[in-house]
């Protein structure tokens, strides 16, 4: 393969990664909005004077909080891994002057 072909392949791969990141960001924003609306609905509907409902609400928070934090940690790990791959692709490209 010629250097031009490799540059085209690298550029196409980076473009696909960019497009995928934009889609993921949009889906993340949509999911955050839905989750926020659901959390507001649960807080609005929950009768905090009823100890059973309060217990169920607190148990749901105990399950949801570590799950959400784990998802954020996974995202950070994936972002770090993707950045290493992008760096490797850029380094393998031709030397740029300027």
Structural account:
The chain is mainly α. It folds into two domains: 1-45; 48-91. Helix content is 87%, strand content 0%. It has helices at 3-45, 51-92. Helix 1 runs antiparallel to helix 2 (51-92). The longest helix is centred in the first third of the chain and has 43 residues, at 3-45. The radius of gyration is 22 Å and the shape is elongated.
Task: Kindly list the characteristics that best describe this protein.
98 residues, elongated
How are the secondary structure elements laid out?
Layout: H1 3-45, H2 51-92
Query: How much is the radius of gyration in Å?
Result: 22 Å
How many domain units? 2
Number of helices: 2
Low-confidence stretches: none
Shape designation: elongated
- Helix/strand-derived category reads mainly alpha
What percent of the residues sit in helical stretches (DSSP H or I)?
A: over 70%
H/E topology pattern: HH
Average pLDDT taken over every residue:
85
Sheet having the most strands = none
Query: What distance separates the N and C termini?
Result: 26 Å
Share of residues in strands: under 5%
